Each structure stands twice: as structure tokens, then as C-alpha cells.
Write the C-alpha cells for this entry.
Amino acid sequence: MRENCDVSLPGEKQANGHLHPFSQAINQLADIFLSMGFEVVEGPELETDFYNFQSLNYPPFHPARDMQDTYFVKNPHGKENLVLRTHTSNVQVRTMEKRTPPLRVCTFGRCFRHDAIDASHEQVFYQVEGFVVDKEISVSNLIFTMKSILSAFFEKEVEIRLHPSYFPFTEPSYEISFTCVNCNGRGCSLCKGSGWLEIGGSGMIHPNVLKAAGYKEGEWQGFAFGWGLDRLTMLKYKINDVRWFHSGDLRFIRQF
Ligand SMILES: [Zn+2]
């Protein structure tokens, strides 16, 4: 049989993919951090109890562990418990151990908690974290750093508000809010009329964390902060439900 091929027919167009909104947000934030002298460091998602908890001043059986609904993983190669990391803070002591300050480090990545899933909670979520270790670091450095990064990310000047809070790995500890980017602080349904949006936790690095990293007592100090990257991305792109991100729905993803 003779083959019939019409070379003049138009070809099939290949569809191009593009970066997921998370990747776009991570790239933008990484550029901002880098412009401020930070370096980007990565850490493992499957982590030991030591780096996820103990080195961060969460002793075994400490009640603060209850707040992080943890997935434990059997360790076939050793006795130490493994966990799916509950925060990106596992990178802190891992990095400090290998290095001598001054340190300016940021990290981005997936975290895992056994949360009930709803419009603002997923069991797999992303965090962005920054920490600095140096001499004479203060809370005002922390505020200025967070304000600069958030203002650059949202392309408008925001203010930072700190609430006293408790985290084992910082002392003092603060919850962070910043000016609502939807209403510029006037009050709207997104910020429930308050004019402020909560974004995560922060504080001065606890001396026990610096000790776990092997630093001499009293020689170094620093700050650390961790934000929900899902929330930042939702605010930036005006997405109303976190479940869209992993839905695989092309009608959603093609908008970005
Ligand atoms: Zn608002």
C-alpha cells in the first residue's frame, strides 16, 4: 500500500508549561533575600528527631511538640526516630553546625503536619524561613528585615506588628502581622476588619539552639523568622483557597 503523507498540513503545536505559583513566589523571595546578603540553603524533608525538635529546644515529651501534628516514620537503619519535617527550622542547626558566623541564611520548602484540611490548611505546605547569627543582633534588625522583604514582595510599603508569643526555639518570641495588602490597613473582610494579616512566627534565637549548634555560650546571637509561603502566595495572587495549589486543575494553574 502506498503511504499517504501531506507535508503541507500544519503541525501540532506543543503546549508550553510554566512555573507553578509557589515556584514563582520562591524565585521572587529568593531574589529579595539575595539582594540583602542572604544565601539560600536547603534541608531534607525526611528529618531526624534531633534536627526537627531536640536541637531546637524541644526536649522529648515536651508539650510544645503537641502543637505540631507530626508524621513519624520508621527508621529501618537506626534507632533514632525520623519525622517528616514539621517546619523549615530543621535547617537552622544543620547549617550552624557546619559554619562559623556571621550567617545570613534563608530557606524554602515543603513541610508536613497532620492538620484537618480546609480552605487555609493543607497537610503538605510550604514555609519560608530566614535567620541571622552575628554579634549585636537585635529585635530592631528583625523588624527591619521582615519589613523590607514583605514590602519588596508585595511592591508596597507595609508595617510590621509583633505580638508576644511562645516558641521553644526563640526567646523572646513574637507572632508577626503586617499591614493588610488588600485594604492598606483600613479594614476589610480579608483581614476581618483589623487592618493586619498574620503571617508567622519570629524571635531571637534561643541560647539552647546556639548551644546545640556547638557555639560558645554568649558569643553569638541572632534572630529567626518563619512564614507560610502558601499564605504569602495566596495574598499576592488573590487566591481564596489553599486546596487549589495541589488540585491539578489546569483552569486554575493557567491563570498564573
Ligand atoms: Zn484588609
Q: What stands out?
A: Helices lie at 21-35, 49-52, 90-98, 139-154, 207-212, 229-237, 250-253. The domain at 40-253 is CATH 3.30.930.10 (BirA Bifunctional Protein; domain 2). The mean pLDDT is 94. The longest strand covers residues 124-134.
